[in-house]
Amino acid sequence: MSQTSNEPVSTYERILREAAALFAVHGYHGTSTRDIAGRVGIRQPSLFHHFGSKHAIADRLFEIDLERSVRVSTHLAEASGPASVRLFRYLRFELEVTVSSPYDLRGLYLTDLLAEPDFAQRQSQYQAVLDALRQVVVQGIQTGEFLDEEPELFVEILNAVITHAVVPAADPIADGPQRVAALLVRSLLQDPGRLPKVLDAAPVEDLELS
Fold first, then answer.
1. 57 exposure class (CB count in 10 Å sphere: 0-12, 13-18, 19+)
2. Could you tell me the CA-to-CA distances from 178 to 32, 89, 106, 173, 174 in Å, in that order?
3. DSSP label at 189?
4. What's the pTM?
5. What is the pLDDT of residues 52-103, one digit of tens each?
6. 121: Cβ–Cβ under 8 A, 6 or more apart, which residues?
7. How many CA atoms lie within 13 A of 208 on its CB side?
8. Strand positions, DSSP E, 78-184
9. Mean per-residue pLDDT, 99-121
């Protein structure tokens, strides 16, 4: 999950990375601010200079990931063009971001943390991403691009694959995001033989939309 770089990392950023790593192993509730400070190599008062609480750290990690996902998914749901192309672009983007993230997000998404009242705002953002994904799937079904199945089933399958991507791979597959996104879209197509045209129509561009 983590990217290697020779560039110096700020204390603020180190807190986020080390907290995410600890949440992934011990869980959010099993990790203390003392644990995080010790992992970073600072004292608790120094940690509190950057983040007022453990909740603030987890909330910031959610914010970084979800605000970007909301922007991209909403943009593609409202864009024109074939739903299959837009779905592929979204899946490829989400998978690329997830597998290259410097944060180990297992402690956020592979637990029930989002369901807790303290993270209601992030749960709302997460739901907005799923709603946008559902919108694209429904559009594809209506135009005959996708199989005429229950949209919610497709959304659950797609989201499960994206969520699984937060598990670090010891030996990542070359071009993994591109290949996985292509396989997922192919499984939805009424005519799987159209996949090459879908891929050709999907531009390789930055979808950060910041």
1. buried
2. 38, 9, 22, 10, 9
3. B
4. 0.90
5. 999 999 999 999 999 999 999 999 999 999 999 999 999 999 999 988 899 9
6. none
7. 4
8. none
9. 94
Q: How far apart are CA 114 and CA 175, in angstroms?
A: 30
Residue 101's nearest CA partner among 177, 176, 2, 210 is 2
Provide the CATH topology of domain 59-201: Tetracycline Repressor; domain 2 (1.10.357)
Residue 114 has pLDDT above 70, yes or no: yes
Q: Is the pLDDT of residue 204 over 80?
A: no
Which runs of consecutive H residues, i.e. helices, occur in 41-191? 44-50, 54-78, 83-100, 106-109, 120-142, 151-164, 176-188
What is the identity of the amino acid at 197? K
Distance CA 147, CA 150 (A): 9
Reading the block at residue 36, the tokens are: 């995080």
Q: Quick check: helix, strand or coil at residue 7?
A: coil
**Domain limits, the chain:** 59-201
In the numeric block, the tokens 């120094």 are attached to 46
Task: List, for residues 145-203, the tens digit of each pLDDT value.
Answer: 999 999 999 999 999 999 988 887 777 777 889 999 999 999 999 999 999 999 999 98
